[in-house]
Automatic annotation (TrEMBL):
This is Secretion system protein E. One of its GO terms (molecular function) is ATP binding. Residues 1-21 are annotated as: Disordered. InterPro entries: AAA+_ATPase, P-loop_NTPase, T2SS/T4SS_dom. Keywords: ATP-binding, Nucleotide-binding. It comes from Trinickia fusca. Belongs to the GSP E family. Residues 310-324 form the Bacterial type II secretion system protein E domain.
Length: 521
C-alpha cells in the first residue's frame, strides 16, 4: 500500500541535493529533494520513477543514509525555492574552482598522468590514469559534470578560446601557479563532444624532475645513455624521439637538454618551440605557440615559430613535435643550417621514423643523410614491479597461458627463476603491485652505410647492420632484459612491445632498473 503523504516541516533544514557531492540532476530535482536531516522527499507516485531510483542507488553506493518521505510534488518544489530565498545559491565558478582544485590535487596524490571527465546523459564519471591504466574514482550528476567542465575551461584555463563550447572540440591549458598543486608545472586540456554528452581529458605535467639528468634512471641502458650523450655533444644534426602518446618522450627530451646545458655550464643557447610548453628546462628559453583556430592555422603558426627560433641565434633548437609537412620541413632546414635539433614524432619504431618523414613529404636523399639526421630513438614505458610483493614466475606458471610460458622460457633460458610477476599489492605500492614505469627503448646513431642500405630499399639489411655492427638493441630485446632481471612482468611487457622473442628477431616496433614514476611523461 502506498504511503500517505503527511505535512512536512521544512524549518531548520537545509537542502543538500542541489549542490555538492550529493547534487541531484535537473530531472531528478523535479521529483525528489534530499534534506540534511536524512529525509529524502519523493513526490507521491514517483517512487519507481527511473530518476528517483537512480538517485537512491547513488546514495546507497555512497553509503549515505536516507529515509524516503512521500510528499506532494509542490513540497519538493517549495523545498528548493525556500532554500534559494534563504540566500543559498547554486554552485558558481568560484565555489566549483575549489572542487576542481581538489580533484587535481587528488590526482597528484595518486600520481595520475591524466584525468578523464565523461559527462553522460544522466551522470558524470571521473577516471584517473595511473601507471597507464584508467581507474574509476567517482560518479557525479550530469549537472555537476557540466559545471566542472565549464569551470575548468572558462575560469581556470590560461590558454583557450573565449568560452567553453560542449558541442565543439577545444584545447586549453592551465598554467597559473595559484591554481595548481606544487607538484605540477601545468595542465593540458582537450575536450570533445560525445554521443550522449561531452568528455574532457586533463594531462598533468609534473615538475618534479628538477635537475635530474641521469638517463639510466629513466631506464635506458648504459650503452643507450652513452649514445645519447654522444648525440647531444654534436654541434649539428637532428635527433628524433618516437613513441606513442604517454611514452615519456617529453621527459627524455627534458633530461637530455638539461644535461646539455649543465655540461656546458650554460654557455649554449637552447631554445624550444612547444605547443604548449610542457616541462620547465632550467637555462633554456622556452617559447609557447599560442593556440590558433583550426589545424591548418596552427600548422602555419608552428612553422613560423620554428623559423623565428632560428633567427634568435640558437645553438640547440628543441621542437616539441613534428606533426605535419610544414614543421618537418622547418626542422630539417634548422638541422641543415648548422643547428643541433631535438624533436619528437609519432612512429612505430626507430627505423620507421625515416618512413614517417618520407610520408610527410621530405625527400629520401635528405632524410638518409647522416650529417642531417644523426639519431633515431624509439621508446615505450612498461611498469616496474614492486620489489616487496612481486612473486616468482616459476611458482605460478601453471596458472598462466601456455604460449606465454613457452615464450618466457625460450627467452629467459637458465634464468627463468629470476622472472617475476606482479603480486596482489601491498602498502609500499598502495595496492597496485607496481611502483612506477621504466623505459624500454632503441637508439640508433646513424652512419653512412646504415643510410645507404635504406636508400637502396634494403630495410632488412639496415636492421641487421644496426644490430650486429652498431650494437643495436630493439625495444623487445630491452624488455626481455628487464623481464629476466625480474623487474618487469612479462605479461605487462607483452602488452607494450608485443610477443617476447629471441634476441636475433626484430619485433617491428623499432624498437639495474629504477622504478621512475613518469606521471604524465
Amino acid at each position: 500500500m502506498r504511503p500517505v503523504a503527511e505535512p512536512v516541516d521544512l524549518a531548520n533544514t537545509k537542502t543538500v541535493s542541489e549542490s555538492g557531492e550529493l547534487a541531484a540532476s535537473e530531472e531528478e530535482r523535479k521529483f525528489l529533494c534530499l534534506l540534511d536531516d536524512g529525509r529524502l522527499l519523493i513526490a507521491e507516485g514517483q517512487e519507481m520513477n527511473p530518476f528517483v531510483l537512480s538517485y537512491r542507488a547513488r546514495l546507497d553506493r555512497l553509503r549515505h543514509a536516507h529515509w524516503p518521505t512521500p510528499v506532494g510534488l509542490d513540497v519538493v518544489s517549495r523545498a528548493y525555492r525556500e532554500r534559494r530565498r534563504a540566500g543559498a545559491e547554486l554552485i558558481d565558478h568560484t565555489a566549483m574552482q575549489v572542487v576542481a582544485k581538489e580533484l587535481i590535487a587528488q590526482a597528484c596524490r595518486e600520481r595520475a598522468s591524466d584525468i578523464h571527465i565523461r559527462v553522460h546523459r544522466f551522470n558524470t564519471e571521473i577516471f584517473f590514469r595511473v601507471h597507464n591504466e584508467l581507474q574509476r574514482v567517482r560518479e557525479q550528476t550530469r549537472e555537476h559534470g557540466e559545471r566542472l567542465l565549464a569551470t575548468l575551461y572558462a575560469a581556470m584555463a590560461t590558454v583557450s578560446d573565449n568560452t567553453y563550447k560542449p558541442t565543439e572540440r577545444q584545447d586549453a591549458a592551465i598554467g597559473d601557479r595559484d591554481k595548481l598543486p606544487d607538484q605540477l608545472f601545468g595542465v593540458r586540456i582537450a575536450t570533445a563532444p560525445t554521443s550522449d554528452g561531452s568528455v574532457m581529458v586533463l594531462r598533468l605535467l609534473y615538475n618534479d624532475a628538477g635537475d635530474a639528468t641521469d638517463l639510466e634512471r629513466l631506464g635506458f641502458t648504459s650503452a643507450q645513455a652513452e649514445t645519447l650523450d654522444f648525440l647531444k655533444a654534436q654541434p649539428i644534426g637532428m635527433n628524433i624521439i618516437s613513441g606513442p602518446t604517454g611514452s615519456g618522450k617529453s621527459t627524455t627530451l627534458q633530461r637530455v637538454l638539461a644535461s646539455e646545458i649543465k655540461d656546458t655550464d650554460g654557455t649554449i643557447h637552447v631554445i624550444t618551440v612547444e605547443d604548449p610548453v610542457e616541462y620547465p628546462i632550467a637555462g633554456a628559453v622556452q617559447t609557447p605557440v599560442i593556440n590558433a583556430l583550426g589545424e591548418e592555422a596552427r600548422s602555419v603558426v608552428f612553422a613560423e615559430a620554428i623559423a623565428n627560433a632560428m633567427r634568435l641565434d640558437p645553438d640547440t633548437i628543441m621542437i616539441g613535435e613534428i606533426r605535419d609537412r610544414a614543421s618537418a620541413q622547418s626542422a630539417l632546414r634548422a638541422s641543415m643550417t648548422g643547428h643541433q635539433v631535438w624533436t619528437t614524432l609519432h612512429a612505430n619504431s626507430a627505423i620507421a621514423i625515416v618512413d614517417r618523414l618520407i610520408d610527410l613529404g621530405l625527400p629520401l636523399r635528405m632524410v638518409t643523410d647522416e650529417s642531417v639526421i644523426t639519431g633515431l630513438i624509439s621508446q615505450r614505458l612498461v611498469k616496474v614491479l614492486c620489489p616487496h610483493c612481486k612473486v616468482r614466475f616459476a611458482d605460478h606458471a601453471l596458472e598462466l597461458d601456455a604460449a606465454l610460458v613457452g615464450r618466457v622460457k625460450r627467452v629467459a633460458g637458465a634464468r627463468i627463476g629470476d622472472v617475476c610477476l606482479a603480486g596482489d599489492g601491498c602498502d609500499h605500492c598502495r595496492g597496485h603491485g607496481t611502483i612506477g614505469r621504466t623505459v624500454v627503448a632503441e637508439v640508433i646513431r646513424t652512419d653512412a652505410h646504415f643510410f645507404a642500405l635504406l636508400r637502396d630499399g634494403d630495410k632488412a639489411g639496415a636492421i641487421t647492420y644496426w644490430l650486429r655492427h652498431l650494437d643495436g638493441q630493439t625495444v623487445v630485446d630491452h624488455a626481455v632484459k628487464k623481464v629476466i632481471e625480474g623487474v618487469v612482468d612479462p605479461r605487462m611487457a607483452e602488452r607494450v612491445v608485443g610477443h617476447l622473442t629471441q634476441q636475433e628477431e626484430y619485433s617491428g616496433f623499432g624498437a639495474n632498473v629504477i622504478g621512475v614514476d613518469y606521471g604524465a611523461a
